[in-house]
């Protein structure tokens, strides 16, 4: 089947662009692939009133691209964490080889371990260990360490 649509990125609003980018590049292995600055011409698209100022950084890992937007006008508005049964995008899921090492690295880069999400799922060949870490913007990163595959 051919497609006339290509997903280019998922957007994440942030109050600290550099901290967000470091979390994903140094913590999860994404690479910087593009940057831009935005002004009033984008206000309607971004659903804000002019004057509007923002800058962005796109990071990529494989086919996944994230666009971080740092707002200066209007400033960023924090939001309360939402449970996963609230409609909308809920998390980024990653398979990891060493859960403890990745979690420690993400915490050092401003992440917060959500201890209540720790889950162990027994499989025939071992146990899957899963935990969520919130990035500096509160976005949930689900990390899963699977047993060795034969």
Helicity, as a percent range: 10-25%
Structural class call reads: alpha/beta
User: What are the segments in which pLDDT stays under 50 over at least 5 consecutive residues?
Assistant: none
Identify the overall geometry: elongated
Description of the molecule:
This is Glyoxalase/bleomycin resistance protein/dioxygenase. It comes from Pseudofrankia inefficax (strain DSM 45817 / CECT 9037 / DDB 130130 / EuI1c). Keywords: Dioxygenase, Oxidoreductase. Residues 6-146 form the VOC domain. Pfam families: Glyoxalase (PF00903). The protein is an alpha/beta fold. It folds into two domains: 10-73, 2,3-Dihydroxybiphenyl 1,2-Dioxygenase, domain 1 (Roll), CATH 3.10.180; 91-145, 2,3-Dihydroxybiphenyl 1,2-Dioxygenase, domain 1, CATH 3.10.180.10. Helix content is 17%, strand content 43%. It contains three helices and eight strands; from the N terminus they run E-H-E-H-E-E-E-H-E-E-E. The chain has a four-stranded mixed beta sheet with strand order 1-4-3-2, covered by helices on one side. Strands 5-8-7-6 form a four-stranded mixed beta sheet, covered by helices on one side. The longest helix is centred in the first third of the chain and has 12 residues, at 17-28. It is elongated and about 55 Å long.
């Amino acid at each position: 089947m051919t497609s006339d649509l290509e997903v280019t990125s998922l957007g994440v609003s942030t109050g600290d662009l550099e901290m967000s980018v470091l979390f994903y590049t140094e913590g999860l292995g994404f690479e910087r692939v593009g940057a831009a600055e935005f002004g009033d011409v984008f206000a309607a698209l971004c659903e804000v009133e002019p004057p509007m100022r923002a800058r962005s950084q796109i990071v990529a890992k494989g086919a996944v691209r994230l666009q971080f937007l740092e707002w200066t006008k209007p400033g960023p508005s924090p939001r309360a964490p939402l449970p996963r049964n609230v409609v909308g995008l809920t998390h980024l899921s990653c398979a990891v080889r060493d859960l403890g090492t990745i979690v420690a690295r993400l915490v050092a880069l401003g992440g917060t371990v959500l201890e209540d999400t720790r889950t162990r799922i027994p499989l025939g060949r071992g146990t899957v260990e899963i935990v969520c870490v919130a990035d500096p913007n509160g976005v949930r990163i689900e990390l899963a360490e699977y047993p060795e595959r034969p």
